[in-house]
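Listing S7. Sequence submitted for prediction.
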Amino acid sequence: MNLCIIPARGGSKRIPRKNIKEFAGKPMIVWSIEAAWESGVFDQIIVSTDDDEIAAVASSAGAQAPFRRPGYLSDDHAGTTEVIAHATNWAQNKGWRIDAVCCLYATAPFVRAADINAGLETLLEGHWDFCFTATEFASPIFRAFTQRQEGGVEMFFPEHFKERSQDLPEALHDAGQFYWGRPEAWLQHRIMFGPKSKPLILPRWRVQDIDTEDDWKRAELLKPVIDRQHDI
């Protein structure tokens, strides 16, 4: 069976209650739950949460919230891998025979069912531990710089100052939508960004991490545009 796990704790700080805050007419988490069901590849969709209100919203949207995540996995320092491993272990203890586990973020309103399907196909087509969404950086990271305390700037890679942008290596970053993985990879806490993982590359215009109020506002502006493109 294929299992979808949506991590959604109640104590988000920068955007309070962001997992169930209304976004484009629905609680944020509902966009992820609906995309998971639309993909048609999941036998079970569960939400890992420590919060009864989140659990109720998730249940009303068709997901399960069959347990409450323990406190040590619900604070600001809990890692995604540990949370998914906990839920995977719970499912296996219930006797579920799991072939693949997808961690789908609750704040991924741009996620598409077709991408979820493509991620599973990619995971299964080779000996991969993980397949996750990624996209290109908008600007070359090798031309990046930081502002010094006294006000001047300093390049991170000054050796690349004279190189043309098109001659620099391509750099990718996590798109923050979903992570397919084999159950043993989650349970053994294997490295996500390593040689046993394959990225599913998304266009930059369909990617928006939502951690701050500015991220939220930008996502609200992008949502109708992305939806129109999806319908074309």
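Caption to Listing S7: primary sequence and predicted structure tokens for the chain studied. The helical segments are 28-39, 52-60, 80-93, 113-125, 183-187, 213-231. The first helix runs from residue 28 to 39.
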